[in-house]
Write the C-alpha cells for this entry.
Amino acid sequence: MPTPIDEGGTMQSLFIQGGNPLRGRIRVSGSKYSALAALPATLLADSPTVLENVPDIADVRIYIDILNGIGAKAERLGPGVVRVDPRGVNRHEVPYELARSMRASYYLLPVLTVRAGEAEVSFPGGDDIGPRPIDLHLMGFRRLGMEVRVEHGAILTRSGPGGPRGASIYLDMISVGATINMMLAAVLATGVTTIIGCDRGPHIVNVADLLNSMGAQVQGAGTDTIRVFGLGPRGRLSGCHHSLIPDLSEAATFMAAAVATCGEVVVEGVVPRHVEAMTLKLREAGATVLENGDSVAVRGTGRLRAISKVKTGPYPTFFTDFQPPLTALLTTADGTSMVVETVWMGRLRYIAELQALGANVQVTNNTAVIQGVPALSGARVTAGDLRAGAALTIAGLMAEGRTEVRGIEHADRGYERFDEKLRGLGALVSREA
Ligand code: EPU
C-alpha cells in the first residue's frame, strides 16, 4: 500500500464524529474520467479549446501542470473552466514524476505521437488497487502502425512511416483507458479504424463528442463498436468549447453516504441514468431514491436490508468505483450481503480497515461476504486509494464515536472539495495534516 501523501508531501487525516444524518443538497462536479482524457485530447487541435465543468481535483491539477510542462498553455479561467492552447507544445517527453503519479498520463502517448512524431511517458501510476496492465493499449497502438518500446520504466512510441493507419482492433477486456486511447490514436490516422469490445460508459461518449466538435469523425461511442474515420496526416482538428458530464462516481458516493447515515439528500447536476446501478441497489436495500430531471433525491430510514449479490463490471453494470461506498453501507444492513469485485483484484483491500471499525466481513479472493452488524464503532483507519477513502469516510459517518481516516488526501484525487461538501450536508468532519 502506498504511503498516503498529499501534493505538498504531508499525510492528512479526516476526523469524523459519527452518527449525524446527512441532510440537504449537493451539486456534483464534472467527470474525472472525462477531464483526464479531454485535457490531453485538446493537444490534437491546432487552436485553443475551452473545457467547461472541469473538476478541481488533484489529478486535474497535475494534468494541467503536465500540459504546461510540455509547452502547452493550460489555465483555469474560472470555476470549472479550463482553456488549453496547444500551439506551444515543444516536448515529447512527459516529466517523469508527474506522469508517474497518475494513470491517465498514458493518453499523451497517442496525442504526442500524432502531434510530434514521438512520445515518452513513464509507466503509469495511479491507485494501488491490484495489477493494472496496459497491454491492450500497446497492442492497439501497434495495430495502428505506431512503434512501441518499453525501456527503463518508460513507454516510448513513435509514428511509423506515413503516420498512424486505420486498423481493426479487438479489445479482449472492456477498458475505459484503452477505448479512449484507441480513439485518440485513430482520429488523424489514414483510413478507418474499427474498435471492437469498447467500454460503453458516458465518459467515452463525452470524449468522442469532444473529438467530433474538434472536427474528428467518431461514430458508435456508447456502444461496443466504435468506428473512427481518420482524417489522415494532413487532416486538421480545431479547438472548440466543450462541457464535461457530471461525475457519476461522486454522485453515487454521496447517494450511498446519505442512505448510510439515514439521511435525506438531493444530489443535483447528475444524469440519473448514469447512476442507475447504484439507485437500484439502494432501493433493494430499502432506501427511497427519486429521480427528478437532473437530480436524484435519496432517503434512508431505519436499518437497511442486506443485498444478496452485487457484482461489479463495466458500465452500465454495477460500476467498480461504486463498490467501496456501497460495501461500507452494507456493513450494518440486516442480513448477509455478497460483493464480488471483478475489475480490480486489489479493490477489496480496504475491507481490513472496515473490520477495524467493527464490520464483520470475510474476504476470499475477489468476494466479500458481509454479515451486517447493528453498529460500527469509531477507530483510526487508513485509506490506501481514492474510493477506499470514500468508503472509510462513509463508515466513519455511520460509526458511533470518533473515526480518523488517515490518507484522506487520496480522496482529493477524485472528489472536489470532499470534506467541504460533506460539511455542507451537516457532517461533523475536519481535516488535519
Ligand atoms: N485491463 C487490462 N489490460 C489493459 C487495460 C485494462 O487487462 O491494457 C484490465 C484492467 O486490469 C481492469 C479492466 O481491464 O481489470 C478495466 O480497466 P480499465 O482500463 O477500464 O481501467 P482504467 O482505464 O485504468 C478507469 C478509471 C478507474 C476506473 C476504471 C473502471 C481513469 C483515470 N480511471 O481506469 O478509476 O475504476 O476505469 O474500469 O479513468 C477510480 O476513479 O477510483 C479509478 C480507479
User: Anything to note?
Assistant: The first helix runs from residue 32 to 41. The chain has a mean pLDDT of 94. The chain has 13 helices and 24 strands.
